[in-house]
């Protein structure tokens, strides 16, 4: 698996119109490649102000829905205001403390987006943003177990995880893939795509995992 990267030094600060254009074009294509289609139920875990949430809401239409989950109430306020202004009534707000369990039913979600958030699970920082505590495998596995519980059969978990080295105890995406595998998700595919990261256009590595079907063991044959 290739380690994620971005165009260091070539990042472009984006205007609102450019963000909207990215959402209609590259962002939409990216989410369609992940498997977001009309009627799907999607969880945008750590959605922030909803760059991805709003694209998903348009793709899944009113026959589907997108849960916008975040522990920052202010970003959720902003996202919901903006979604309603745009007529996106299928965005459902989920406030969280960050602790598990997730407020979602078993086997109810088709696609989970974990974009630019895995490194923050279990992480805490000081006043100037320095790392005080790194996220550990047990922090992430508690979340992954919940993702397995809420995912439908063949459900997808799509990750984009920059900052692993600075914020967590792992060295690469490969370690995250191993954790996901242990929690019941197999690697499906990966690709590079044009993403918005910290307000700039970057080229990022998307890795998609699929929920493994449990083996049905017969008592005898
Ligand atoms: C860097 S932003 C990424 C936002 C969005 N996913 C994107 O890529 O544009 C990370 C977001 O995750 C949220 N977050 C961090 N830890 C979280 C947790 N344990 N549960 C839910 N949200 C979390 C933060 O509040 C923040 O809004």
How would you describe this structure to a colleague?
This protein has 221 residues and is an alpha/beta fold. It has a single domain (12-211), classed as 3-Layer(aba) Sandwich (Rossmann fold). Helices cover 31% and strands 29% of the residues. The protein contains 7 helices and 10 strands. The protein has helices at residues 16-24, 26-34, 51-60, 73-85, 137-150, 164-167, 173-182; strands spanning 12-13, 41-45, 65-70, 91-95, 109-115, 124-125, 131-133, 151-160, 185-197, 200-211. Strands 1, 2, 3, 4, 5, 8, 9 and 10 form an 8-stranded mixed β-sheet that branches. The protein has a two-stranded antiparallel ribbon with strand order 6-7. The longest helix is centred in the middle third of the chain and has 14 residues, at 137-150. Mean pLDDT is 92; it is low at 1-11. Residues 46-48, 51-52, 69-72, 75, 96, 98, 115-117, 120-121 line the site of S-adenosylmethionine (SAM).
